[in-house]
Amino acid sequence: MAPPTCRYLHVGMHRILLREVVIDAPRDTFPATRDFWAAALLADAHQVPAHPEFTALLEPAARSWVGLQEICGGPARYHLDIETDDVAAEVARLVGLGAEQVAEGRTWVVLRDPSGLLFDDVPAESPWFAERAREVG
């Protein structure tokens, strides 16, 4: 069977990078989940002062950032953050590829991939974005 063909929606030149894996854990299991992943990835867990629902794992044994988010409802899950220097253009491209826009956050957009998995499109802010990002368009 031939691999599926990709559909690209031309929306202008911008760059993208898979920035972070986020572990979404319900409030009742959050401390144990945080401690487990910190130990598993040999990292120090630190709550993000400006956004206390988020915990960063500092210096994990990983190529990308790894974080945890305390969620108020629903099952535990993972989600990916894709960073870009043009959120609107990247959302349009991803929707053209088959994603569904679900919600908008403070600076990000939540999308659902064709299999139902959630992910975020976020503004570029990682220190390695300029070096590792790939050009789209």
How would you characterize this protein structure?
With 137 residues, the protein is of the alpha+beta class. It has a single domain (14-136), classed as 2,3-Dihydroxybiphenyl 1,2-Dioxygenase, domain 1 (Roll). It is built from three helices and nine strands. The protein has helices spanning 30-40, 87-96, 129-132; strands spanning 14-26, 44-47, 54-58, 65-71, 77-84, 100-104, 109-112, 118-123, 134-136. Strands 1, 2, 3, 4, 5, 6, 7, 8 and 9 form a nine-stranded mixed β-sheet that branches. A hairpin with a 5-residue loop joins β7 (109-112) and β8 (118-123). It is globular, with a radius of gyration of 16 Å. The model is unreliable at 1-10 (pLDDT under 50).
CA(first)-CA(last) distance: 28 Å
Please name the fourth-level CATH homologous superfamily: 2,3-Dihydroxybiphenyl 1,2-Dioxygenase, domain 1
Shape: globular
Global Rg = 16 Å
- Taking all residues together, what is the mean pLDDT? 90
Number of strand elements:
9
Topology as H/E string?
Answer: EHEEEEHEEEHE
The share of residues in helices is: 10-25%
Assign the CATH class: Alpha Beta
CATH architecture: Roll
